[in-house]
Specification:
It is built from seven helices and seven strands; from the N terminus they run βαβαβαβαβαβαβα. A seven-stranded parallel beta sheet has the order 4-3-2-1-5-6-7. The longest helix is centred in the first third of the chain and has 16 residues. The structure holds adenosine monophosphate.
Amino acid sequence: MRTICVYCAASTKIKPVYFEATARLAKIFTEAGMSVVFGGGCSGLMGQLADSMLAANGKITGVIPQFMCDEEWHHKSLSELIVVETMHERKALMAKMADAIVALPGGCGTMEELLEAITWKQLGILTVPIVIVNMDGYYDSMIEMLHRAVDENFMRGVHKNMWEVVATPEEVLNAISNSANWESNSRSFAAI
Ligand code: AMP
C-alpha cells in the first residue's frame, strides 16, 4: 500500500467546495488502496480528510506535536496517531513516510509545508511526486510566484518539474503517476 502525505487547512470557515473536494480525494485514495499521513488535526480540511478516509475504511495516520494534543486539536479516532515534540519533527516524519505529497488548499501552515517539501526536493532530500490541488484557482498566485522565481533566475527552469498542478482531486492519481522523475542527485544542479 502506498502512503500519500496530505497538507491541508485547519480552518473551518472556508468554502464548502474545498470540503467536498477533500472528501472526494479521500474516497479516491481508499479506492486505490492508498493510505494517508497528515497533520493529525480534527478541524477544517484535516478533519474532513480523516473523517472521509475512516468512513471508507481507509488507513490514515496523523503526526502531531504534543502541544497541539494539549490544545485538543488532534483527531480522536485515527488509524494511528504519532505524537512528536516539534513542528519540525512532524514535517520530517510526514515527509519520510510519504510516497507522494499532495497539497490541498490551506493557510500559512499548508503553504509552508508545501514550500518546504519543494525546497527539500530541490536539494535532493526527497524525490517523491508533489501535487498541488489548485481548486478554484486557489494557488494561482503561488504558482505565478514560483514561475516568477524561475523567470528571474532564482531557480532553474528544470525546477518547475518538481511539482504538478491539477484543478480537481480526480486528476491527482494520474498526476502522481505522470510526475517527472526526480533523482536524489538533483543537489548537483540545485544551485543557479
Ligand atoms: P493551515 O494551512 O495554516 O490551516 O495549517 C495547517 C497546518 O497548520 C497543520 O498541518 C498544522 O501544522 C497546523 N495547524 C494550524 N492550526 C491547527 C489546528 N487547529 N489543529 C491542528 N493543526 C493546526
